[in-house]
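Structure in, sequence out. Go:
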């Protein structure tokens, strides 16, 4: 078994949206949401470069990457640290493109980014530290979002 346990893989596949941190040439952070993030295998995550020129340029200079995947309602998730490889052609590129096409993606994908995960750690809200349950946290955020976007 690789570094990505089955429950972690299931979580990432369910959530899909991730926040990817890279380092700009001047040393400042670059944070970018990626809606195509998924598990590639027991040791790798992957996302498609649909419109990510800054992220890709940063990774070509410095392949260090951190990815956070969090369930917005329960305020729990995982952070993944690793090393990214950018593919714009070849067998790996073709395999990942085929995967996204089979999943229904119609986007123009410029590159794919394959991340060798070296470290996984959990992320959770401080709300759990004061005794709230997952259901309590979920209800709080449901009420918040329903207030912003009430049903018509």
């Amino acid at each position: 078994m690789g570094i990505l346990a089955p429950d972690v893989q299931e979580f990432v596949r369910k959530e899909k949206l991730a926040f990817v941190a890279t380092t700009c040439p001047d040393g400042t952070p670059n944070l970018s949401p990626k809606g195509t993030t998924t598990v590639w295998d027991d040791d790798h995550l992957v996302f498609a470069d649909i419109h990510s020129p800054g992220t890709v340029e940063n990774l070509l200079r410095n392949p260090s990457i951190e990815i956070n995947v969090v369930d917005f309602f329960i305020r729990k998730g995982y952070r993944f640290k690793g090393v990214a490889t950018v593919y714009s052609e070849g067998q790996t590129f073709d395999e990942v493109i085929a995967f996204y096409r089979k999943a229904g993606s119609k986007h123009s994908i410029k590159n794919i980014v394959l991340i060798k995960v070296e470290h996984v750690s959990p992320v959770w809200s401080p709300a759990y530290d004061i005794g709230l349950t997952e259901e309590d946290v979920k209800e709080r955020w449901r009420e918040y979002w329903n207030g912003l976007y009430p049903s018509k």
